[in-house]
Description:
One of its GO terms (cellular component) is membrane. The protein is mostly helical and 206 residues long. It folds into two domains: 3-101, no CATH class; 106-205, no CATH class. It has helices at residues 3-29, 37-45, 50-64, 68-101, 106-119, 127-136, 140-147, 157-175, 180-185, 189-205. The longest helix has 34 residues, at 68-101.
Amino acid sequence: MTNADEIKALKAKRANVRRKLTRFINFVNQEENKNKRDEISVRLQGIYSLLQEFEDYHTQIHVFDETQATEDELNNFEDDYYQIISEAKNAINSSTDSSNGSAVSANTLHTYLKALENIKRPTDQWDDLLIHMIAAKFDQHTTVAWESTLSSEIPNMESMFQFLTQRCQMWEAFEANHSFKKRFSNITFFTVLAVFIIQHTAHLEK
Length: 206
């Protein structure tokens, strides 16, 4: 094999390593994958070895090709490698924080109930108060999602229920990847609050 053939083969192997990293970058950056914490974590485990592989091929190529372009290939790969690992870890941590932040205690719900009972709000005027109470508990991602559903019309509880239902379904799908015990001990805020509103709206209408 000539030097030219060897360099070509090494560059092809190096390019394959680059493609693996690019696929991971594209996966992490796709909006629909932002909450796939477990899958991102699993995929990340296979990414750690790529830098060493790339450097090994780079070292062999550098014997025959000492141009700046070769050095730039390594520098660019390192930049992308460290950046996507940081972004992937942030996505994993953000998803965990969002899930944990959605939990609410029974005491908090009891406080909401007492407040509604004390002010004796008629049911046909509850929408503004309940929507404010619910939206105040949203994390940043949920707030952005809720605001994206708003129009020029004042939102009502029907639209809030539709939004909560969609979020509940999303979190239930996410929680399905966790253990039975965790699914039922960490009830999401949206599920509990939806049940609370349904039950106590009926109670106060009597």
